[in-house]
Amino acid sequence: MQFLADMPVEEARNWLTKFNGVGPKTAAIVLCFSLGKPAFPVDTHVYRVTGRIGLRPEKMTVEQAHPHLEAVFPPETYYAAHLNLIRLGREICNARKPLCPKCPARKLCDYKDKTK
Ligand code: SF4
Question: How many whole angstroms separate alpha carbon 26 and alpha carbon 97?
Answer without folding.
Answer: 27
